[in-house]
Design a protein that fits this description.
Length: 222
């Protein structure tokens, strides 16, 4: 993983969370943290531009855009297994396996949130890139992120952030990897649990952790 990737993943995760009432309050701290960590000022500047598009939207309007974009539209949703399997009955099994990966990595999930919430998985990748099962998630996250990017309206305040993720954070998936993602959605009604859900999964789970705790939008630790 490139040196700058963890801080960028964590920062992008924050920007892709639901914009609660105090969302604007984190702007200066977030931009300053990225600037401090970046040796590449041009990279930090590109992130800052993407973030500014989001922060420039009035809070109430941004909340409406967020819900319309990420909650109501399937192709731009923020849940990994939904991109991989759609509404297939296999999604439940996929979520259980992913939950084992997350817990095995020692990551604490927010109460009430599905374990395949993409911003949460960005943070997991940021803090546990040393975990083989978490590293295996990166390809899946890149493919899903690219799918979101392709279907996001160009005038969306989030388009700059998704473009940034695919140009400066993730490697763009190959055509074959994209076809694999799409084919699993098409064949999701088959009885066999499909790749890439089993990739990098050993079925062991641990709940102990000394990692940073994921925070909900109201700032409470979970």
């Amino acid at each position: 993983m490139m040196e700058h990737k963890p801080v960028l993943l964590a920062a992008c995760a924050r920007l892709l969370g639901y914009p609660c009432e105090d969302f604007q309050d984190m702007k200066e701290e977030l931009l300053a943290a990225v600037q401090e960590e970046m040796k590449d000022n041009e990279l930090a500047s590109r992130f800052g531009q993407a973030a500014e598009f989001i922060f420039s939207v009035p809070p109430k309007e941004l909340q409406e855009i967020y819900v319309w974009t990420f909650d109501w539209k399937e192709k731009t949703g923020l849940y990994l297994t939904a991109h991989e399997l759609g509404d297939s009955r296999e999604r439940g099994a996929a979520l259980i396996l992913l939950q084992h990966i997350v817990r095995d990595a020692g990551f604490m999930m927010p109460s009430g949130e599905l374990c395949d919430f993409i911003p949460l998985l960005y943070e997991l990748l940021a803090v546990r890139s040393d975990n083989v099962h978490v590293r295996a998630l990166e390809l899946r996250l890149a493919a899903a992120t690219e799918r979101i990017r392709k279907h996001l309206s160009e005038d969306s305040p989030y388009s700059g952030l998704l473009n940034f993720l695919m140009t400066d954070v993730f490697e763009v998936p190959t055509e074959e990897e994209i076809r694999m993602l799409e084919s699993k959605r098409e064949s999701a009604d088959l009885d066999e649990l499909p790749y890439p859900i089993l990739f990098g999964m050993d079925g062991m789970a641990r709940s102990d952790s000394d990692l940073p705790i994921y925070k909900t939008c109201n700032g409470m630790e979970v």
